[in-house]
Structures are given as structure tokens and as C-alpha cells.
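INFO  loader      accepted 1 record
INFO  loader      residues=256
INFO  predictor   begin
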Amino acid sequence: MNLRFLGTGWSHGVPTLGCDCPVCRGGDPKNCRCRSSITLRDDQVSVVVDVGPDFRFQALRAELKRIDAVFITHQHADHVMGLDDVRRFSWMQGEALPIWGEASVLDRLAELYPYVTQKRKPGTAVPLLKFCDWLSPVKLGSMTFTSFQVPHGNIPCVGIRIDGEAGSFGYVPDCSGLPEAALSVLEGVDVMILNALRIEPHPSHLSLAQSLEWLERVGAPQSYLTHMGCPIDYNVHNAKLPPGVEMAWDGLELTI
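INFO  predictor   done
INFO  writer      dumping C-alpha cells
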């Protein structure tokens, strides 16, 4: 099972518009962060988690040739506003592309994209999508996707556990904490990926220090930080992280 970070940035992306900080102006590739998204694949299927406004560029950069499903963690713009760009994949594959999410998220997507319908014929200029209510674990190929609730402001939001034949990933790009039920689902994961928005506390996201505290509680052998803003500098902060924790960067690939 292979995981690739399509994006590791906060909702503004990095460089952030109008920002003159050293991270935004420095040009280091590991500090250039598209909106947070990942792709996972085994020898049977290819899956994307979240499709923000950078998705077209991310898919080109990663040379994605096929998508068998999209999972959506929540309805914020930086996670859903690239959904129209999956139309190329439904067009090439000639069938409706499953979009998995909670019912309230799917309702919001239907409002944002009223022209999307699985009744259209393949090959039209709009996405051919099938909204799928994510009520229980979903198995695609050798991978099983299990969602769990996490707090993130005043909207429904989920994290994901992905189990494959050789190991497991935990992925939570947005949250302000991990409830006991979430920790229970994440028990025993091999790799944990958690948001670390900025240095200062934030009401609906984890700060860098808070993320490290939660990662210690999860206890995965290897952990990565994602959904990071421009105050966080790879060259400064990555070297200060505890053993077993690293900052992710766009294009990083993990295999288990």
C-alpha cells in the first residue's frame, strides 16, 4: 500500500497570498504546500482523500492516471472545491466515480455541484459522480477505509483509518483533538498523520505542540504532520521534532 501526499498545507496554501514571512518568500520546495490531500493505491485501485482547489495541479504533478473513489473528510472549501476536476477520470473510465462522505457532507456537495448526476452519460463535460453515504468501513482492493468523528469547529468532520495487507495508516487532516472513540479506532496504526496548523493555538485546529501531544497518545511507530501553515518552517521545525515524528511535504511517498 502506497500513500502519497498531494498537499500538506493549510486552507490558504503556502506561499500564502500577501505574506512576506521567510517561509513564504524562501522558495524551499518542502515549504511549498498545496491544500491537504493524499492518494492511496495498491495493485488494484487508486483512491484520493479530499479534493481541494489545487487538485488539478496536484493530479498532474503526481501523474494520476486513474481514480477509483474519492473520500471526503468534511465540507470546507479547501477539501472539496476541486471536485469538478475529477470529471476527466469519470470520462476516461466511462462510469460514475464513487464519492464517499457523511450524509451532511454529500448534501453540501449536491448544493455546490447541482449539475452533477449519475444519470448523465459518460463523456459529457461535467463530472459523472455517485454519492455514497459512508456509514461503515469501505473496502476497495486490499484497502479498508474506516471513518471516525473528530471535532473541527461547528461542522461534521472525520478522520480515517486505512488498513491494508501489510499495515495501516491513520489520517486526520483537520481536528482540534482526538476523542476517546477516535483513539480507539486508531489503536495499533503503523503510521499516523495529523494536522499541525501553526505555532499558536487555534480554536478548531491543532497547534504544533498540541499535535505532538496527541501523536504521543496515539503511539504509532512513525508519525507525520500535515495541514501546516506558513509559520511552520521545514528547515527550522522538522529538526526539533521528537524521534519518530516528521513533517510531511508535497510529493512525499510512504509504502507499507
